[in-house]
Write a structure and sequence with these properties.
The structure is a homodimer of 272-residue chains.
Chain A lengths: L40 H15 L6 H13 L5 H11 L8 H21 L5 H20 L6 H15 L4 H9 L5 H26 L4 H22 L4 H14 L9 H4 L6
Helix pairs in contact in A: 1-3, 2-4, 2-5, 3-4, 3-8, 4-5, 4-6, 6-8, 7-8, 8-9, 9-10
Pfam family, one (chains A, B): polyprenyl_synt
Cofactor (chains A, B): Mg(2+)
GO molecular function (chains A, B): metal ion binding; prenyltransferase activity
């Protein structure tokens, strides 16, 4: 299950996977003959969480910061923030260059989750306020982390994230979810604006921050979109054919990177 | 009442007020012999609202955008966004340079207001989601508006606004408000983190975007803080002496700008 196996694999352990142009199924762990941990996207997730643990201060007033920690780490995990790091590395960037963007995405998603629970009568007033606090904090991280020469990239990423999590993106998805009639087509639209858009955003932001070309950015955006669709639809136990179709479409977008190490990025196509 | 008289005064009408170094009370409108409207900070507020009306799209899905408009324009007005424009002009900038920052501040405050109502059991789920949508939109406006050469200033402003509205700022104030015991000192702390910090932020951001020097930025930040304290305390009908003290402290900070047109900025010290 994503989010439960949190391996912290150092870059030196990265394995070179055989290309999987025709088979969308990745090499199974049992085929590996060496006992090193497989570099899985969950290891990127673990990096982001470690960064956030260190970055969100535990200070006075504790009634503000303690729930902030709880809310951030209690939210269900999606692969979108980790995809941001993977895309950055795929275009030749360093993982750390995309860390603030990944953290900002995670914070925005944690807020959306907390507020969704409140909408369902489950959350508390504290969660309401706390959620409100972590969204600007995400943008602050991004702005703070902008090194000399990179503000244009950071600016672009702020716009990307705002659109993906705001109206036109995740907010539309959450609105639609309320009135969804169970029809496959309308569930698809919810997933498109939700998981699809969020993973597309994560991948595109990573590629921007890693210094990718416009073509690389757009390919990775599409890869992310299909990864999000695939994961979102599988989660809702939708038609397995649709899931497979998105997996294949995602794989196609990786063709541009065929001479690069596709180890981690291809694990986004697995459900283990 | 601030926010009700929305005069749209063009810059050419700006009046040069006699300096009021000793009397904190501004010249009363009755002393004016010409029938031109007094340039009041409410005119800046009107500019920000006109900008937001034009900027927030009315498009599908209407169930997202229509409440967004309603929420933004229904929130009670504070002077902090208008102060952002006034500070920008005071240091020699153009009003338009600070418009996105003023709009972002207003959007953040509208969200806080909507969520406060939800916390009190008055708001709807729609308001919850809508509030969540307008916060990233504010940051998007800021990032989008960063012209060539100005991203560093915009980055700084994003950090300033995030801190003022997030944990450590407004969020702390809203938390404290819940447990306030009616003691003047604890109400003061609520106002410090709330109105004080928000007006300080507005003024500092305006000065940054208008190209002010570090000294000008810090003076205007203090001016803003005292304006916020003064207005926040007056609103809570706190000790009038405290209100007057903050008004005088605010006035002192304007000394640096004594050779500049203090027309509009001095109207923040009035309650009409």
């Amino acid at each position: 299950m994503p989010g439960t196996i949190l391996l912290n694999v150092s870059a030196s352990f990265r394995l070179r996977f055989p290309r999987q142009a025709r088979s969308p199924l990745p090499v199974k762990p049992t085929l590996l003959t060496i006992p090193t941990p497989q570099p899985h996207w969950a290891s990127l997730q673990a990096d982001i969480e470690a960064y956030l643990k260190q970055t969100i201060p535990i200070k006075d007033p504790l009634e503000v910061y303690e729930p902030m920690h709880r809310l951030v780490f209690a939210a269900p995990r999606t692969a979108a923030p980790a995809l941001c790091l993977a895309a950055c590395e795929l275009v030749g960037g360093q993982r750390c260059q995309a860390m603030d963007a990944a953290a900002a995405l995670l914070l925005n998603l944690a807020n959306a989750h907390a507020h969704e629970e409140i909408g369902q009568g489950e959350g508390s007033n504290i969660a309401l306020l706390t959620g409100d606090g972590i969204v600007p904090f995400g943008f602050e991280l991004l702005a703070r982390g902008a090194g000399p020469g990179s503000p244009e990239r950071v600016m672009r990423v702020i716009i990307e994230i705002s659109r993906a999590v705001g109206s036109g993106g995740l907010i539309d998805s959450l609105h639609m979810k309320k009135s969804v009639d169970g029809e496959v087509e309308s569930v698809k639209r919810v997933v498109e604006k939700g998981e699809g858009g969020l993973h597309a955003c994560g991948a595109a932001c990573g590629a921007v921050l890693g210094g990718g070309s416009e073509e690389e950015i757009e390919r990775l955006r599409k890869f992310g979109f299909h990864v999000g669709m695939m994961r979102g639809m599988a989660q809702r136990a939708l038609n397995n054919e649709d899931v497979e179709e998105h997996r294949n479409l995602a794989l196609k977008e990786l063709h541009l990177f065929k001479d690069t190490d596709l180890g981690i990025i291809s694990t986004f196509l697995n459900f283990y």
